[in-house]
Amino acid sequence: MKYSNFMEVCFKALSVNEGFARVCVASFCVQLNPSVDEITDIKTAVSEAVTNCVVHAYPTAVKGDVILRCELEDNMITISVMDKGVGIKDVQKAREPFYTTKPSAERSGMGFTVMESFMDDVQVESNSFGTCVKMTKKLTANVSDVAGL
User: Fold this and answer.
1) Domain that holds residue 119
2) Which sequence positions are flagged as catalytic?
3) Would you call 83 helix, strand, or coil by DSSP?
4) Closest alpha carbon to 131 in 110, 112, 105, 108
5) How many CA atoms lie within 13 A of 92 on its CB side?
6) Smallest Cα–Cα separation from 13: which of 70, 48, 40, 53?
7) 36-52 vs 17-29: helix axis angle to the nearest 10?
8) Is 6 helix (H, G, I), strand (E, B) or coil?
9) How many domains does the chain have?
């Protein structure tokens, strides 16, 4: 029998909400009994994705929303972090280590590199209507034990 579950939350693209996003995802993952290292990896990747929305998606003072969706399918988690901001002009360039559009803001340009190092797969889709970062990670949990299946 397959195990599946999902959750979705929406919050303003404010830096204070980065911690909220980390806690939401970590709490949701607990049902699969992940290791501390797995939770740490996931929280770090989520932090980077949400921070990108906060810093880059809405360049004006009016901040839009960030949508965070987590899906569990057996022992695989898929996390989507989406915004309806200005989009990324060149996704390939943005994924290069140390590339930043905000060097004066002391940005390291390592966000996507960090996401890729902690997750099994990272996909980025972006246009002038927003960006979606979709990350997946296989967890070591025994789903049949955790879910009571």
Assistant:
1) 4-146
2) 48, 52, 107
3) strand
4) 112
5) 0
6) 53
7) 140
8) strand
9) 1
| Tokens coding 105 | 């803001």
CATH code assigned at 99:
3.30.565.10
Give the global pTM: 0.86
Kindly report, residue by residue over 64-108, the tens digit of the pLDDT.
999 999 999 989 999 999 999 999 888 787 777 666 666 555 556
What letter represents residue 141's amino acid? A
Give the amino acid at 95: R
In this structure, what token pair is assigned to residue 108? 């390291």
- Neighbour order of strands in the sheet with 4-12: 4-12, 65-73, 76-83, 130-138, 121-127
Q: What is the C-alpha to C-alpha distance for residues 25 and 39, in angstroms, rounded to an integer? A: 9
Please report, for residues 11, 44, 88, 91, 134, the alpha-carbon distance to residue 68 in angstroms, rounded to integers and kept in the order given. Answer: 8, 14, 18, 20, 10
d(CA 100, CA 21) in angstroms, rounded, equals 23
* Alpha-carbon span 21 to 74, nearest angstrom: 22
